[in-house]
Amino acid sequence: MKKTQAVILAAGLGKRMKSSLPKVIHTVLGKPLIRFVVDSVLQAGVEKVTVVVGHGGEKVREALEGYPVVFAVQEEQLGTGHAVASALDTLHLSSPETIVLCGDAPLISPVTLRKMVRRHRKEKAVVTLLTAYLEDPSGYGRVVRSPSGEVAKIVEEKDASPEEREVNEVNSGTYVFDTAYLMEGVKTLSRDNAQGEYYLTDLVYRAFSEEKRVVALVSDDPDEILGVNSRQDLAQVAGIVALRKAEELMEKGVTLEDPYGTYVAPDVKVGPDTVIEPGVVIKGKTRIGKGVFIGAGCYIEDSRIGDGATLRPYSVVTESVVGRGVRVGPFAHLRPGTELKEGVHIGNFVEVKNSRVGEGSKANHLTYIGDATVGKKVNVGAGTITCNYDGLKKHRTVIGDGAFIGSNTELVAPVSVGKGALVGAGTTVTEDVPPFSLALSRVRQKNIKSWVREKMPDLLRKSGLLKDDEGRK
Ligand code: UD1
Ligand code: CA
Question: How far is the CA of 469 from the centre of ligand 2 (A)?
Fold first, then answer.
Protein backbone atom coordinates (compact mmCIF):
# COMPACT_ATOMS: atom_id res chain seq x y z
CA MET A 1 0.00 0.00 0.00
CA LYS A 2 3.05 2.22 -0.20
CA LYS A 3 2.41 5.01 -2.67
CA THR A 4 -1.31 4.98 -1.94
CA GLN A 5 -2.72 8.19 -0.51
CA ALA A 6 -6.01 8.74 1.27
CA VAL A 7 -8.49 11.60 1.60
CA ILE A 8 -11.00 11.54 4.43
CA LEU A 9 -13.99 13.83 4.03
CA ALA A 10 -14.88 15.40 7.34
CA ALA A 11 -16.07 18.91 6.59
CA GLY A 12 -19.80 18.29 6.55
CA LEU A 13 -22.13 19.96 8.98
CA GLY A 14 -23.97 16.82 9.96
CA LYS A 15 -27.35 18.56 10.10
CA ARG A 16 -29.18 15.39 10.98
CA MET A 17 -27.17 15.11 14.23
CA LYS A 18 -28.84 18.35 15.49
CA SER A 19 -25.57 19.28 17.12
CA SER A 20 -23.35 22.31 17.52
CA LEU A 21 -20.30 20.06 17.13
CA PRO A 22 -18.94 18.74 13.85
CA LYS A 23 -20.34 15.29 13.23
CA VAL A 24 -17.05 13.43 12.99
CA ILE A 25 -15.97 14.30 16.53
CA HIS A 26 -19.02 12.69 18.09
CA THR A 27 -17.74 9.71 20.00
CA VAL A 28 -18.35 6.00 20.12
CA LEU A 29 -17.16 4.59 23.46
CA GLY A 30 -15.23 7.78 24.03
CA LYS A 31 -13.44 7.65 20.68
CA PRO A 32 -14.25 10.29 18.03
CA LEU A 33 -15.64 8.86 14.77
CA ILE A 34 -12.88 10.45 12.73
CA ARG A 35 -10.21 8.55 14.68
CA PHE A 36 -11.75 5.23 13.78
CA VAL A 37 -11.41 6.10 10.11
CA VAL A 38 -7.88 7.50 10.40
CA ASP A 39 -6.73 4.48 12.44
CA SER A 40 -8.11 2.13 9.84
CA VAL A 41 -6.45 3.97 6.96
CA LEU A 42 -3.12 4.06 8.79
CA GLN A 43 -3.38 0.36 9.63
CA ALA A 44 -3.97 -0.34 5.95
CA GLY A 45 -0.54 1.20 5.45
CA VAL A 46 -1.17 4.20 3.21
CA GLU A 47 1.61 6.65 2.60
CA LYS A 48 -0.22 9.87 3.27
CA VAL A 49 -3.56 10.93 4.75
CA THR A 50 -5.40 14.19 4.14
CA VAL A 51 -8.39 15.10 6.28
CA VAL A 52 -10.76 17.66 4.78
CA VAL A 53 -12.17 19.90 7.48
CA GLY A 54 -14.58 22.80 7.39
CA HIS A 55 -17.36 23.32 9.83
CA GLY A 56 -15.80 23.20 13.33
CA GLY A 57 -12.44 22.39 11.77
CA GLU A 58 -10.51 23.37 14.90
CA LYS A 59 -12.27 20.72 16.91
CA VAL A 60 -11.58 18.07 14.29
CA ARG A 61 -7.88 19.01 14.33
CA GLU A 62 -7.89 18.72 18.12
CA ALA A 63 -9.47 15.27 17.94
CA LEU A 64 -6.60 14.22 15.68
CA GLU A 65 -3.77 15.77 17.64
CA GLY A 66 -0.62 13.73 17.27
CA TYR A 67 -1.90 11.79 14.26
CA PRO A 68 0.31 11.77 11.14
CA VAL A 69 -2.23 13.50 8.88
CA VAL A 70 -2.40 16.75 6.96
CA PHE A 71 -5.47 18.95 6.76
CA ALA A 72 -7.21 20.63 3.87
CA VAL A 73 -9.92 23.22 4.42
CA GLN A 74 -13.24 23.24 2.59
CA GLU A 75 -14.56 26.71 3.33
CA GLU A 76 -18.11 26.06 2.21
CA GLN A 77 -19.71 22.65 2.28
CA LEU A 78 -20.82 22.22 -1.29
CA GLY A 79 -20.76 18.44 -1.45
CA THR A 80 -18.42 15.45 -1.39
CA GLY A 81 -16.96 16.22 -4.84
CA HIS A 82 -16.21 19.77 -3.77
CA ALA A 83 -14.61 18.42 -0.58
CA VAL A 84 -12.14 16.36 -2.61
CA ALA A 85 -11.49 19.37 -4.85
CA SER A 86 -10.57 21.36 -1.74
CA ALA A 87 -7.85 18.82 -1.00
CA LEU A 88 -6.20 18.89 -4.44
CA ASP A 89 -3.18 20.81 -3.19
CA THR A 90 -2.32 17.98 -0.83
CA LEU A 91 -2.68 15.19 -3.42
CA HIS A 92 0.21 13.92 -5.50
CA LEU A 93 0.20 12.31 -8.91
CA SER A 94 3.14 10.24 -7.73
CA SER A 95 0.60 8.16 -5.81
CA PRO A 96 -1.12 6.17 -8.54
CA GLU A 97 -4.24 5.61 -6.49
CA THR A 98 -6.16 7.63 -3.92
CA ILE A 99 -8.55 6.17 -1.39
CA VAL A 100 -11.48 8.44 -0.58
CA LEU A 101 -13.45 7.80 2.59
CA CYS A 102 -16.17 9.46 4.64
CA GLY A 103 -15.19 10.57 8.12
CA ASP A 104 -18.62 9.55 9.35
CA ALA A 105 -18.31 5.83 8.51
CA PRO A 106 -16.17 4.49 11.36
CA LEU A 107 -16.38 0.74 10.86
CA ILE A 108 -14.40 0.44 7.64
CA SER A 109 -11.71 -2.20 8.11
CA PRO A 110 -8.09 -1.96 6.97
CA VAL A 111 -8.40 -5.44 5.48
CA THR A 112 -11.15 -4.23 3.16
CA LEU A 113 -9.14 -1.18 2.14
CA ARG A 114 -6.19 -3.35 1.16
CA LYS A 115 -8.48 -5.70 -0.71
CA MET A 116 -9.97 -2.76 -2.62
CA VAL A 117 -6.56 -1.46 -3.63
CA ARG A 118 -5.47 -4.93 -4.81
CA ARG A 119 -8.62 -5.33 -6.93
CA HIS A 120 -8.25 -1.81 -8.26
CA ARG A 121 -4.68 -2.47 -9.40
CA LYS A 122 -5.41 -5.89 -10.78
CA GLU A 123 -8.37 -4.71 -12.83
CA LYS A 124 -6.68 -1.45 -13.85
CA ALA A 125 -9.84 0.39 -12.80
CA VAL A 126 -10.29 4.15 -12.69
CA VAL A 127 -12.61 3.73 -9.72
CA THR A 128 -13.24 0.86 -7.35
CA LEU A 129 -16.07 1.33 -4.92
CA LEU A 130 -17.22 -0.57 -1.89
CA THR A 131 -20.91 -1.45 -1.86
CA ALA A 132 -23.19 -3.44 0.40
CA TYR A 133 -26.65 -4.91 0.35
CA LEU A 134 -28.78 -3.47 3.15
CA GLU A 135 -32.22 -4.58 4.23
CA ASP A 136 -33.03 -0.92 4.74
CA PRO A 137 -31.07 1.13 2.22
CA SER A 138 -32.68 4.45 3.11
CA GLY A 139 -30.40 7.42 3.36
CA TYR A 140 -27.69 5.92 1.15
CA GLY A 141 -26.84 6.41 -2.50
CA ARG A 142 -28.15 3.47 -4.55
CA VAL A 143 -25.93 1.49 -6.88
CA VAL A 144 -27.52 1.30 -10.33
CA ARG A 145 -26.13 -1.48 -12.52
CA SER A 146 -26.32 -1.86 -16.29
CA PRO A 147 -28.18 -4.80 -17.83
CA SER A 148 -24.85 -6.62 -18.03
CA GLY A 149 -24.35 -6.11 -14.28
CA GLU A 150 -21.71 -3.41 -14.37
CA VAL A 151 -21.98 -0.44 -12.05
CA ALA A 152 -23.41 2.36 -14.15
CA LYS A 153 -24.04 5.09 -11.58
CA ILE A 154 -24.77 6.05 -8.02
CA VAL A 155 -28.07 7.81 -7.41
CA GLU A 156 -28.57 9.72 -4.20
CA GLU A 157 -31.81 8.98 -2.41
CA LYS A 158 -33.10 12.51 -2.98
CA ASP A 159 -32.53 12.18 -6.73
CA ALA A 160 -33.74 8.60 -7.08
CA SER A 161 -36.79 7.46 -8.98
CA PRO A 162 -39.20 5.15 -7.14
CA GLU A 163 -37.64 2.13 -8.92
CA GLU A 164 -34.15 3.25 -8.02
CA ARG A 165 -35.17 3.56 -4.41
CA GLU A 166 -36.14 -0.08 -4.45
CA VAL A 167 -32.50 -1.01 -5.05
CA ASN A 168 -30.90 -2.23 -1.87
CA GLU A 169 -27.31 -2.24 -3.01
CA VAL A 170 -25.84 0.96 -1.57
CA ASN A 171 -22.72 3.04 -1.99
CA SER A 172 -20.50 2.90 1.11
CA GLY A 173 -18.77 6.19 0.32
CA THR A 174 -15.38 4.43 0.27
CA TYR A 175 -13.58 4.43 -3.07
CA VAL A 176 -10.21 3.83 -4.64
CA PHE A 177 -9.63 6.25 -7.53
CA ASP A 178 -6.98 6.51 -10.14
CA THR A 179 -5.33 9.68 -8.86
CA ALA A 180 -5.15 11.51 -12.18
CA TYR A 181 -8.76 10.65 -12.99
CA LEU A 182 -9.90 11.89 -9.59
CA MET A 183 -7.91 15.11 -9.68
CA GLU A 184 -9.14 16.02 -13.14
CA GLY A 185 -12.66 14.79 -12.52
CA VAL A 186 -13.51 16.75 -9.38
CA LYS A 187 -12.73 20.02 -11.16
CA THR A 188 -15.53 19.50 -13.64
CA LEU A 189 -18.51 18.30 -11.59
CA SER A 190 -21.85 20.05 -11.77
CA ARG A 191 -24.40 20.91 -9.07
CA ASP A 192 -27.36 19.92 -11.14
CA ASN A 193 -29.13 17.69 -8.62
CA ALA A 194 -31.73 17.71 -5.84
CA GLN A 195 -29.29 18.99 -3.21
CA GLY A 196 -27.45 21.49 -5.42
CA GLU A 197 -24.17 19.86 -4.41
CA TYR A 198 -21.07 18.66 -6.23
CA TYR A 199 -21.44 14.90 -5.89
CA LEU A 200 -18.26 12.85 -5.92
CA THR A 201 -20.42 9.93 -6.95
CA ASP A 202 -21.00 11.53 -10.37
CA LEU A 203 -17.49 10.39 -11.29
CA VAL A 204 -18.77 6.82 -11.28
CA TYR A 205 -21.30 7.60 -13.99
CA ARG A 206 -18.72 9.55 -15.94
CA ALA A 207 -16.25 6.66 -15.87
CA PHE A 208 -18.98 4.24 -16.95
CA SER A 209 -20.11 6.45 -19.84
CA GLU A 210 -16.49 6.91 -20.96
CA GLU A 211 -16.23 3.12 -20.93
CA LYS A 212 -13.53 3.20 -18.30
CA ARG A 213 -13.23 0.35 -15.84
CA VAL A 214 -15.46 0.69 -12.75
CA VAL A 215 -15.17 -2.09 -10.17
CA ALA A 216 -17.52 -2.71 -7.26
CA LEU A 217 -16.42 -4.75 -4.30
CA VAL A 218 -19.43 -5.97 -2.35
CA SER A 219 -18.76 -5.99 1.37
CA ASP A 220 -19.64 -9.26 3.06
CA ASP A 221 -20.14 -7.34 6.31
CA PRO A 222 -22.88 -4.73 5.81
CA ASP A 223 -22.09 -3.19 9.23
CA GLU A 224 -18.75 -2.11 7.87
CA ILE A 225 -20.24 0.56 5.67
CA LEU A 226 -22.60 2.13 8.22
CA GLY A 227 -22.49 5.91 8.02
CA VAL A 228 -23.46 7.96 11.05
CA ASN A 229 -25.94 10.65 10.12
CA SER A 230 -28.10 10.76 13.25
CA ARG A 231 -27.96 10.04 16.97
CA GLN A 232 -29.75 6.78 16.25
CA ASP A 233 -26.97 5.76 13.87
CA LEU A 234 -24.42 6.73 16.51
CA ALA A 235 -26.06 4.46 19.07
CA GLN A 236 -26.27 1.63 16.55
CA VAL A 237 -22.57 1.92 15.76
CA ALA A 238 -21.69 2.08 19.48
CA GLY A 239 -23.56 -1.16 20.03
CA ILE A 240 -21.70 -2.84 17.20
CA VAL A 241 -18.30 -1.57 18.34
CA ALA A 242 -18.94 -2.68 21.93
CA LEU A 243 -20.06 -6.13 20.86
CA ARG A 244 -17.15 -6.60 18.47
CA LYS A 245 -14.75 -5.67 21.24
CA ALA A 246 -16.50 -8.05 23.61
CA GLU A 247 -16.11 -10.88 21.07
CA GLU A 248 -12.42 -10.06 20.63
CA LEU A 249 -11.82 -10.08 24.39
CA MET A 250 -13.66 -13.34 24.95
CA GLU A 251 -11.62 -14.84 22.14
CA LYS A 252 -8.52 -13.83 24.11
CA GLY A 253 -9.65 -15.43 27.36
CA VAL A 254 -11.42 -12.59 29.14
CA THR A 255 -14.70 -13.31 30.94
CA LEU A 256 -17.46 -10.79 30.27
CA GLU A 257 -20.40 -11.65 32.45
CA ASP A 258 -22.64 -9.51 30.28
CA PRO A 259 -21.13 -8.85 26.85
CA TYR A 260 -24.18 -6.75 25.91
CA GLY A 261 -23.91 -4.48 28.92
CA THR A 262 -20.14 -3.90 29.01
CA TYR A 263 -18.48 -1.06 27.15
CA VAL A 264 -14.84 -1.63 26.39
CA ALA A 265 -13.41 0.90 23.93
CA PRO A 266 -11.64 -0.37 20.81
CA ASP A 267 -8.09 0.55 21.87
CA VAL A 268 -8.27 -1.04 25.32
CA LYS A 269 -6.13 -4.13 26.00
CA VAL A 270 -7.16 -6.77 28.54
CA GLY A 271 -5.17 -9.81 29.67
CA PRO A 272 -6.53 -13.35 29.94
CA ASP A 273 -8.44 -14.62 32.97
CA THR A 274 -9.64 -11.15 33.76
CA VAL A 275 -13.29 -11.10 34.82
CA ILE A 276 -15.49 -8.14 33.99
CA GLU A 277 -18.87 -7.82 35.66
CA PRO A 278 -21.92 -6.15 34.07
CA GLY A 279 -22.13 -2.41 33.58
CA VAL A 280 -18.41 -1.77 33.34
CA VAL A 281 -17.09 1.03 31.08
CA ILE A 282 -13.44 0.97 30.03
CA LYS A 283 -12.23 3.76 27.76
CA GLY A 284 -9.24 5.40 26.16
CA LYS A 285 -5.84 3.76 26.06
CA THR A 286 -6.38 1.59 29.12
CA ARG A 287 -4.25 -1.55 29.63
CA ILE A 288 -5.55 -4.21 31.98
CA GLY A 289 -3.39 -7.13 33.09
CA LYS A 290 -4.05 -10.82 33.63
CA GLY A 291 -6.38 -12.20 36.25
CA VAL A 292 -7.85 -8.84 37.14
CA PHE A 293 -11.33 -8.63 38.65
CA ILE A 294 -13.44 -5.64 37.66
CA GLY A 295 -16.66 -5.33 39.64
CA ALA A 296 -20.02 -4.10 38.41
CA GLY A 297 -20.28 -0.47 37.45
CA CYS A 298 -16.57 0.36 37.42
CA TYR A 299 -15.47 3.18 35.11
CA ILE A 300 -11.85 3.11 33.93
CA GLU A 301 -10.24 5.58 31.53
CA ASP A 302 -6.67 5.93 30.26
CA SER A 303 -5.22 3.80 33.05
CA ARG A 304 -3.03 0.76 33.63
CA ILE A 305 -4.22 -2.01 35.92
CA GLY A 306 -1.65 -4.60 37.02
CA ASP A 307 -2.01 -8.38 37.06
CA GLY A 308 -4.22 -9.81 39.75
CA ALA A 309 -5.65 -6.48 40.85
CA THR A 310 -9.22 -6.26 42.16
CA LEU A 311 -11.47 -3.33 41.44
CA ARG A 312 -14.55 -3.77 43.54
CA PRO A 313 -17.86 -2.41 42.23
CA TYR A 314 -18.45 1.23 41.36
CA SER A 315 -14.88 2.38 41.45
CA VAL A 316 -13.79 5.17 39.10
CA VAL A 317 -10.22 5.16 37.83
CA THR A 318 -8.84 7.82 35.46
CA GLU A 319 -5.26 8.39 34.25
CA SER A 320 -3.90 6.19 37.02
CA VAL A 321 -1.51 3.29 37.40
CA VAL A 322 -2.66 0.45 39.63
CA GLY A 323 0.00 -2.11 40.57
CA ARG A 324 -0.15 -5.89 40.77
CA GLY A 325 -2.48 -7.35 43.34
CA VAL A 326 -3.85 -3.97 44.39
CA ARG A 327 -7.34 -3.89 45.87
CA VAL A 328 -9.53 -0.88 45.16
CA GLY A 329 -13.09 -0.01 46.20
CA PRO A 330 -15.97 -0.48 46.34
CA PHE A 331 -16.80 3.16 45.61
CA ALA A 332 -13.21 4.36 45.37
CA HIS A 333 -12.08 7.24 43.16
CA LEU A 334 -8.60 7.23 41.65
CA ARG A 335 -8.06 10.55 39.90
CA PRO A 336 -5.34 11.54 37.42
CA GLY A 337 -1.77 11.02 38.55
CA THR A 338 -2.48 8.25 41.03
CA GLU A 339 0.09 5.48 41.23
CA LEU A 340 -0.58 2.56 43.53
CA LYS A 341 2.31 0.15 44.02
CA GLU A 342 1.98 -3.60 44.44
CA GLY A 343 -0.42 -4.82 47.10
CA VAL A 344 -1.91 -1.46 48.07
CA HIS A 345 -5.44 -1.45 49.49
CA ILE A 346 -7.66 1.53 48.77
CA GLY A 347 -11.06 1.01 50.35
CA ASN A 348 -14.54 2.44 50.13
CA PHE A 349 -15.06 6.17 49.80
CA VAL A 350 -11.37 6.82 49.42
CA GLU A 351 -10.23 9.40 46.85
CA VAL A 352 -6.64 9.54 45.63
CA LYS A 353 -5.27 12.20 43.29
CA ASN A 354 -1.79 12.93 41.94
CA SER A 355 -0.21 10.73 44.57
CA ARG A 356 2.09 7.75 44.78
CA VAL A 357 1.25 5.12 47.36
CA GLY A 358 4.04 2.64 48.16
CA GLU A 359 3.93 -1.15 48.33
CA GLY A 360 1.55 -2.72 50.76
CA SER A 361 0.13 0.53 52.13
CA LYS A 362 -3.52 0.75 53.11
CA ALA A 363 -6.18 3.43 53.24
CA ASN A 364 -9.31 1.46 53.74
CA HIS A 365 -12.04 3.94 54.58
CA LEU A 366 -13.28 7.47 53.88
CA THR A 367 -10.03 9.20 53.10
CA TYR A 368 -8.62 11.86 50.76
CA ILE A 369 -5.04 11.49 49.61
CA GLY A 370 -4.13 14.34 47.26
CA ASP A 371 -0.69 15.51 46.09
CA ALA A 372 0.99 13.05 48.44
CA THR A 373 3.86 10.63 48.45
CA VAL A 374 3.07 7.74 50.73
CA GLY A 375 5.79 5.20 51.57
CA LYS A 376 5.59 1.44 51.93
CA LYS A 377 3.44 -0.36 54.47
CA VAL A 378 1.81 2.81 55.69
CA ASN A 379 -1.54 2.55 57.42
CA VAL A 380 -3.85 5.45 56.82
CA GLY A 381 -6.75 5.44 59.26
CA ALA A 382 -10.39 6.14 58.44
CA GLY A 383 -11.29 9.72 57.73
CA THR A 384 -7.76 10.96 57.09
CA ILE A 385 -7.46 14.04 54.90
CA THR A 386 -4.46 15.58 53.23
CA CYS A 387 -5.30 19.29 53.28
CA ASN A 388 -3.44 19.99 50.06
CA TYR A 389 -5.02 23.28 49.03
CA ASP A 390 -4.63 26.56 50.86
CA GLY A 391 -7.07 28.37 48.62
CA LEU A 392 -4.34 29.53 46.24
CA LYS A 393 -1.86 26.73 45.79
CA LYS A 394 -1.58 22.97 46.10
CA HIS A 395 1.04 21.57 48.47
CA ARG A 396 2.51 18.11 48.99
CA THR A 397 2.29 15.71 51.88
CA VAL A 398 5.06 13.13 52.36
CA ILE A 399 4.53 10.09 54.57
CA GLY A 400 7.49 7.79 55.28
CA ASP A 401 7.60 3.98 55.21
CA GLY A 402 5.77 2.17 57.96
CA ALA A 403 4.10 5.28 59.37
CA PHE A 404 0.75 4.84 61.10
CA ILE A 405 -1.75 7.63 60.60
CA GLY A 406 -4.54 7.45 63.17
CA SER A 407 -8.15 7.91 62.15
CA ASN A 408 -9.49 11.35 61.44
CA THR A 409 -6.09 12.92 60.97
CA GLU A 410 -5.66 16.14 59.00
CA LEU A 411 -2.31 16.56 57.31
CA VAL A 412 -1.97 20.26 56.51
CA ALA A 413 0.42 20.43 53.57
CA PRO A 414 3.22 21.10 52.99
CA VAL A 415 4.04 18.65 55.71
CA SER A 416 5.85 15.37 56.23
CA VAL A 417 5.51 12.42 58.54
CA GLY A 418 8.78 10.54 59.07
CA LYS A 419 9.18 6.80 58.67
CA GLY A 420 7.87 4.71 61.51
CA ALA A 421 6.09 7.68 63.06
CA LEU A 422 2.71 7.41 64.74
CA VAL A 423 0.06 10.08 64.44
CA GLY A 424 -2.63 9.85 67.10
CA ALA A 425 -6.23 9.73 65.99
CA GLY A 426 -7.83 13.10 65.51
CA THR A 427 -4.55 14.96 65.15
CA THR A 428 -4.16 18.01 62.94
CA VAL A 429 -0.59 17.76 61.70
CA THR A 430 0.77 21.20 60.87
CA GLU A 431 4.46 20.56 61.53
CA ASP A 432 6.74 17.86 60.20
CA VAL A 433 6.77 14.73 62.34
CA PRO A 434 10.28 13.27 62.84
CA PRO A 435 10.80 9.55 62.19
CA PHE A 436 9.69 7.12 64.91
CA SER A 437 7.92 9.90 66.87
CA LEU A 438 4.40 10.21 68.17
CA ALA A 439 2.46 13.26 67.03
CA LEU A 440 -0.59 14.38 68.97
CA SER A 441 -2.47 17.63 68.73
CA ARG A 442 -5.50 16.79 70.77
CA VAL A 443 -6.65 18.62 73.88
CA ARG A 444 -6.28 16.30 76.84
CA GLN A 445 -9.62 14.75 77.69
CA LYS A 446 -11.29 15.54 81.00
CA ASN A 447 -14.20 13.60 82.50
CA ILE A 448 -16.58 15.57 84.74
CA LYS A 449 -18.24 13.18 87.13
CA SER A 450 -22.05 13.01 87.24
CA TRP A 451 -22.34 16.03 84.95
CA VAL A 452 -25.11 14.53 82.86
CA ARG A 453 -27.14 13.40 85.86
CA GLU A 454 -26.95 16.88 87.33
CA LYS A 455 -27.09 19.16 84.30
CA MET A 456 -29.12 17.18 81.77
CA PRO A 457 -31.27 14.65 83.59
CA ASP A 458 -33.89 14.83 80.82
CA LEU A 459 -31.44 13.11 78.54
CA LEU A 460 -31.30 10.15 80.92
CA ARG A 461 -35.08 10.12 81.33
CA LYS A 462 -35.48 9.98 77.60
CA SER A 463 -33.39 6.84 77.44
CA GLY A 464 -35.05 5.34 80.52
CA LEU A 465 -31.96 5.54 82.69
CA LEU A 466 -33.83 7.80 85.18
CA LYS A 467 -37.47 7.36 86.25
CA ASP A 468 -39.76 10.30 85.35
CA ASP A 469 -39.84 11.75 88.86
CA GLU A 470 -36.39 10.61 89.96
CA GLY A 471 -33.93 13.41 90.63
CA ARG A 472 -36.64 16.12 90.35
CA LYS A 473 -36.29 18.84 92.97
C1 UD1 B 1 -22.66 10.00 0.84
C2 UD1 B 1 -22.72 9.54 -0.62
C3 UD1 B 1 -23.70 8.38 -0.71
C4 UD1 B 1 -23.25 7.26 0.22
C5 UD1 B 1 -23.07 7.77 1.65
C6 UD1 B 1 -22.40 6.72 2.49
C7 UD1 B 1 -22.34 11.47 -2.08
C8 UD1 B 1 -22.97 12.48 -2.94
N9 UD1 B 1 -23.16 10.62 -1.46
O10 UD1 B 1 -23.95 10.46 1.19
O11 UD1 B 1 -23.74 7.89 -2.03
O12 UD1 B 1 -24.21 6.22 0.21
O13 UD1 B 1 -22.22 8.93 1.67
O14 UD1 B 1 -22.34 7.08 3.86
O15 UD1 B 1 -21.12 11.43 -2.00
N16 UD1 B 1 -18.57 16.08 3.46
C17 UD1 B 1 -17.63 17.08 3.33
N18 UD1 B 1 -17.98 18.21 2.64
C19 UD1 B 1 -19.19 18.38 2.07
C20 UD1 B 1 -20.14 17.34 2.21
C21 UD1 B 1 -19.80 16.20 2.90
O22 UD1 B 1 -16.51 16.97 3.82
O23 UD1 B 1 -19.41 19.43 1.45
C24 UD1 B 1 -18.20 14.87 4.24
C25 UD1 B 1 -19.05 14.70 5.46
O26 UD1 B 1 -18.42 15.30 6.58
C27 UD1 B 1 -19.15 13.19 5.61
C28 UD1 B 1 -18.96 12.69 4.20
O29 UD1 B 1 -18.42 13.74 3.44
O30 UD1 B 1 -18.12 12.68 6.43
C31 UD1 B 1 -20.29 12.23 3.59
O32 UD1 B 1 -21.19 13.33 3.60
P33 UD1 B 1 -22.72 13.16 3.92
O34 UD1 B 1 -23.36 14.48 3.79
O35 UD1 B 1 -22.90 12.41 5.17
O36 UD1 B 1 -23.16 12.27 2.67
P37 UD1 B 1 -24.32 11.24 2.56
O38 UD1 B 1 -25.60 11.96 2.30
O39 UD1 B 1 -24.29 10.30 3.70
CA1 CA C 1 -23.15 10.16 5.60
Answer: 85
Strand intervals (E) in 284-344: 287-288, 293-294, 299-301, 304-305, 310-311, 316-318, 321-322, 327-328, 333-334, 339-340
What are the backbone dihedrals phi and psi of residue 186, each rounded to the nearest 5 degrees, phi first?
-70, -15
User: Nearest CA to 331 among 299, 309, 359?
Assistant: 299
Spatial contact of 384 and 408, defined as CB atoms under 8 Å apart: yes
Q: What distance in Å separates the CA atoms of residue 37 and residue 406, rounded to the nearest whole number?
A: 54
Q: Taking a C-beta distance cutoff of 8 angstroms, is the pair 213, 239 a contact?
A: no
Residue 368 and residue 380: Cα distance in Å, rounded? 10
Nearest to 376 by CA among 343, 331, 347: 343
Q: Are 168 and 135 in contact (CB under 8 A)?
A: yes
Q: Which protein residue's CA is at the shortest distance from atom 35 of ligand 1?
A: 229
Could you tell me the domains of the chain?
Answer: 5-225 (3.90.550.10), 254-439 (2.160.10.10), 443-473 (no CATH)
Enumerate the active-site residues: 365
DSSP 394-441: B--EEE-TT-EE-TT-EEESSEEE-TT-EE-TT-EE-SPBPTT-EE--
Q: Is the pTM of this model over 0.85?
A: yes
**205, pLDDT greater than 80:** yes
Residues 122 and 253 sit within 8 Å (Cβ to Cβ): no
Q: Which atom of ligand 1 is least distant from the CA of 53?
A: 22
Q: Which of 219, 265, 229, 251 is nearest to 113 (CA)?
A: 219
Looking at every residue in the chain, the average pLDDT score rounds to 96
pLDDT digit string, tens, across residues 130-164: 999 999 999 999 999 999 999 999 999 999 999 99
Q: What is the average per-residue pLDDT within 307-322?
A: 98
**What confidence score (pLDDT) does residue 362 get?**
98
Mutate-to-test residue for ligand 1 from 34, 41, 74, 80, highest number of ligand atoms within 8 A of CB: 80
Residues 6 or more apart from 2 whose CB is under 8 A from it? 45, 47
The pair phi, psi for residue 27, each rounded to 5°, is -110, 150
